[in-house]
UniProtKB/TrEMBL annotation:
The protein's name: Metallo-beta-lactamase
Stored Pfam families: Lactamase_B
Extent of the signal sequence: none
Residues of the Metallo-beta-lactamase domain: 33-226
Origin: domain of life: Archaea
SUPFAM superfamilies in the cross-refs: Metallo-hydrolase/oxidoreductase
Length: 316
């Protein structure tokens, strides 16, 4: 795995526009785990991600600190519909009275989030589900089903969408002027340490994630603004992390495959061997970063379980 040079940026200045990092952790669980991003042009204002529903007060406060408010938004894009990325979308759109751009396979589940909420309740666990809160329904008249490879013009801002399934079938990345908003495609990057881990929850298809990474790998990105956990600057840094994530997913898959007879369905057993196999995961553990974040702990639990179930399904 290729580490990222430790860094922690609050914004990306692009000349004619800038990207501002916004806090989007749920109230009561402030761990620098979830971020949204505001793209600010001469005229346009576009929000990328909303965070979970119970993060709405945090998101509003972070916007105010930057000198903005929800009513000024011209559009909202989400990378996928999981609660930590889009749980607050319905309420955000109600306040901004603007359009929400969502993958066509995910959009119906935000208009009627009953199945989404039920699935999240079953997979996230009580602590995280209660911390995030249920998704609020999106006004169907405000939802726009995105198209793969299309660039949307929001006033003076150009926002490109690329479909990148694997983490979920409704996953897409968003691109603006060389800044990549990868959602969960490239894992969770704890930028201040330079370490990262996969995001491979239930129903993940790892080869599809890798294919999606290859799909955008020939692009030149000046920065990546990760929903989890911050901004990485530099073309080489972003490319190295992309290639490192491919290697990391393969390493985790191979480790779980090799240890499946010994560990069976014991997540802690797999975790022990993954720490030995992955120096970046080991770094998070040894430096205490994993211990600091219950949300990251839960994500890693789900990622191990997701890969375990994939291996069981393919090789049983």
């Amino acid at each position: 795995m290729i580490p990222v040079t430790p860094q922690d940026h609050e914004k990306v200045n692009l000349g004619e526009s800038e990207v501002l990092k916004l806090r989007a952790d749920p109230e009561g669980v402030q761990e620098n785990y979830i971020f949204a991003y505001l793209i600010v042009g001469r005229e346009g204002r576009v929000l990328i991600e909303t965070g979970p529903r119970k993060a709405l007060p945090t998101l509003k406060e972070s916007l105010r600190e930057k000198g903005f408010k929800l009513s000024e938004l011209d559009a909202v894009f989400v990378t996928h519909i999981h609660l930590d990325h889009a749980g607050a979308l319905g309420e955000v759109v109600r306040e901004c009275n603007c359009k929400a751009y969502v993958h066509p396979r995910g959009l119906p589940h935000l208009v009627d989030p009953s199945r989404l909420n039920e699935a999240a309740k079953n997979t996230l666990g009580d602590f995280v589900f209660n911390a995030y809160g249920e998704a609020f329904p999106l006004d169907p008249d405000k939802g726009v089903a995105t198209e793969d490879g299309r660039t949307y013009e929001i006033k003076d801002l150009k926002i490109e969408v690329v479909f990148t399934p694997g983490h979920a079938p409704h996953h897409q990345v968003v691109i603006h002027e060389g800044v990549l908003f990868p959602g969960d495609l490239l894992g969770e990057v704890t930028v201040w340490t330079g370490a990262y881990t996969p995001t491979t929850p239930h129903r993940t298809i790892p080869p599809m994630i890798i294919d999606s990474i290859w799909k955008i790998s020939d692009r030149q990105f000046v920065a990546a603004a990760y929903t989890h956990r911050g901004i990485v600057m530099g073309e080489d840094e972003v490319r190295n992390q992309m290639m490192g994530e491919v290697e990391q997913i393969r390493t985790w898959l191979n480790t779980i495959f090799v240890r499946r007879s010994k560990c069976r369905e014991d997540i802690e057993c797999y975790k022990k061997y993954l720490i030995e196999a992955d120096p970046l995961f080991k770094k998070l553990v040894e430096e205490g970063e994993l211990e600091k974040s219950k949300l990251l702990q839960n994500s890693i639990r789900m990622s191990i379980e997701g890969l375990m179930k994939y291996v069981q399904a393919v090789f049983t």
